[in-house]
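Quick one:
INPUT:
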């Protein structure tokens, strides 16, 4: 959670942060709940709707800030790692080079819909500026129209219209994770079967994009010894106010005025990352971006609002004038950033928007079709004029050498007792690259499970004799389901073992010019004979001359033979591979995970007597 005043939608924001705190914060939580209740009651007494909205917005934001602070301070300190938020920028010599890659690496995929009346279009970006905990350049994409195969141009409309009888282009309602996805909707004719393959097809998508690149990004490396010190580089400066176990307080400033291009654009130019003693990046748990002085100012404005009986234009101007005057005095910016784990060192980076480069481009993108499985014999090209790296690959591929102990240590156990007749214990583990190569031929072996009562001191006591139907073990899904109706005594513990599966994986590195039969590189595409290298046993990763892993754009399989399965797999990369890494599963081992689980208590009042 990143909190910055002033915020809108106070009611919604408060709802997002509702939740229990630790027992030590119970008094503070009660106080906050009481304060919230009093504030909501005071809102009911305001009759002027504009005044009521203004009070709700500012007062709700202050309550949100207080609740966020309470939750961040009370969060248990559990180490959780993250990726380098600046990794993508570090691959390019300037911010502008990153912007050019973002724009020039964009293309559009044609995707079939489950409906005969719909065709989906998916704009594919080489990377996403909106990943949590990463930097953001001001940017925007606006879609304007689609050109069909009959040369008709359909204009974009912000939502599908039920009364429009023609072909429509509007945002997709089926994919909330990709907000840029679009849908071409063909008219529905009652009583008439329609095959949209006979409709004019989308051939190009028109739009425009704008991205603003900062002059530069500069990073300061700080540790505990830098507390109280100001570090500067040209017009940028950073002061480490405090560095505690899991949070840091920082002031930063840019002595140069903001570029006119971003003067009215909300910016957060600060990226704070932390490493622990292992050197790995810690994930962020949130931040507070207001000083005590700023909070006091907003509280004063809220008090002034609450004294009013009606809203007036003159009063609005007074508030705006006060806020402008106050913000003008704030030459330095503040951030208190929390991390999931103990901090050893900080990397504080600042985007310098004292000058900015605005890149605008009109888009006319061909709509490409790459079905996941096709019977086409011709292999399409998909070579884009950019190089993009996969910064998660190296960490993901550590799973190729996963050991039994690592696999067991990664197991988490969840219980569900909401339905006592189907109570469940689930054994899960953090997904890794090893899971990709498990295949489908499992030998789970035996899964012995016993249930026990507890003695007066709460320790495990006698085993419970049970009929076979009292519980079921699903070894492949890692679940135990039990029916308390069939238990003569209340169980308190369960003991046994559940199988885990571990692939033995062999890695080889191959030069692009010396590939074995069955593997072939054509530009940025890797062609794989899937009879020689079956998909369930093999994975392929590519590096270029820099040694970095190339990001895969997409993969398809060509089944151009009537007598067998898909023969050729094609992997497309952003860039030309210089070396391939092959990963082959050569064995599959069953690992028995022994457990003793203290059972959650179920509400047995509804069970059969």
């Amino acid at each position: 959670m990143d909190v910055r005043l002033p915020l809108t939608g106070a009611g919604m924001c408060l709802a997002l942060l509702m939740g229990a705190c630790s027992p030590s914060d119970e008094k503070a939580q009660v106080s906050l709940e009481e304060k919230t209740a009093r504030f909501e009651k005071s809102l009911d007494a305001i009759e002027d709707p504009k005044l009521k909205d203004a009070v709700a917005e500012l007062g709700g934001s202050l309550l949100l800030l207080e609740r966020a602070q309470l939750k961040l301070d009370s969060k248990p300190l559990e180490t959780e790692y993250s990726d380098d938020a600046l990794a993508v920028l570090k691959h390019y010599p300037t911010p502008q080079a990153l912007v050019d890659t973002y724009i020039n690496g964009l293309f559009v995929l044609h995707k079939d819909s489950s409906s005969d009346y719909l065709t989906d279009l998916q704009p594919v970006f080489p990377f996403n500026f909106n990943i949590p905990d990463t930097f953001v350049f001001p940017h925007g994409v606006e879609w304007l129209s689609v050109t069909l195969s009959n040369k008709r141009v359909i204009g974009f409309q912000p939502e599908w219209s039920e009364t429009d009888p023609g072909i429509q282009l509007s945002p997709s309602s089926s994919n909330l994770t990709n907000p840029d996805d679009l849908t071409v909707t063909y008219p529905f004719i009652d009583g008439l079967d329609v095959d949209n393959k006979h409709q004019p097809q989308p051939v190009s998508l028109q739009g425009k994009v704008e991205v603003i690149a900062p002059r530069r990004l500069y990073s300061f490396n700080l540790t505990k010894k830098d507390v109280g010190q100001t570090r500067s580089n040209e017009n940028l400066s950073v002061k480490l106010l405090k560095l505690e176990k899991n949070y840091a307080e920082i002031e930063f400033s840019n002595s140069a005025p903001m570029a006119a291009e971003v003067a009215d654009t909300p910016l957060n130019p600060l990226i704070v990352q932390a490493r622990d003693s292992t050197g790995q990046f810690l994930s962020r748990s949130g931040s507070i971006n207001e000083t005590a002085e700023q909070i006091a100012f907003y509280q004063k404005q809220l008090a002034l609002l609450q004294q009013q009986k009606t809203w007036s234009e003159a009063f609005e101007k007074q508030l705006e004038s006060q806020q402008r005057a106050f913000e003008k005095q704030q030459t330095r910016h503040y951030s208190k950033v929390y991390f999931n784990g103990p901090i050893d060192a900080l990397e504080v980076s600042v985007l310098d928007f004292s000058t900015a480069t605005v890149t605008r481009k009109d888009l006319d993108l061909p709509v490409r079709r790459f079905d996941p499985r096709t019977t086409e014999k011709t292999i399409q090209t998909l070579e884009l004029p950019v190089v993009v790296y996969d910064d998660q690959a190296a960490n993901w591929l550590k799973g190729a050498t996963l050991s039994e102990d690592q696999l067991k240590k990664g197991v988490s156990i969840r219980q569900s007792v909401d339905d006592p007749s189907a109570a469940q214990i689930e054994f899960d583990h953090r997904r890794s690259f090893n899971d990709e190569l498990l295949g489908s031929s499992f030998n789970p072996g035996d899964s012995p499970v016993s249930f026990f009562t507890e003695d007066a001191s709460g320790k495990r006591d006698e085993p419970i004799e049970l009929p076979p139907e009292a519980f079921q073990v699903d070894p492949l899904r890692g679940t135990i389901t039990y029916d308390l109706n069939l238990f003569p005594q209340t169980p308190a513990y369960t003991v046994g073992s559940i199988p885990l599966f571990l692939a033995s994986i062999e890695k080889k590195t191959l030069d692009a010019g010396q590939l074995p039969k069955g593997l072939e590189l054509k530009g940025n595409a890797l062609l794989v004979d899937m009879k020689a290298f079956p998909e369930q046993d093999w994975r392929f990763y590519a590096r270029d001359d820099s040694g970095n892993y190339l990001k895969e754009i997409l993969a398809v399989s060509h089944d151009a033979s009537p007598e067998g399965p898909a023969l050729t797999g094609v992997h497309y990369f952003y860039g030309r591979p210089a070396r391939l890494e092959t990963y082959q599963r050569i064995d599959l081992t069953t690992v028995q995970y022994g457990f003793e689980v203290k059972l959650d208590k179920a509400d047995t009042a509804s069970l059969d007597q």
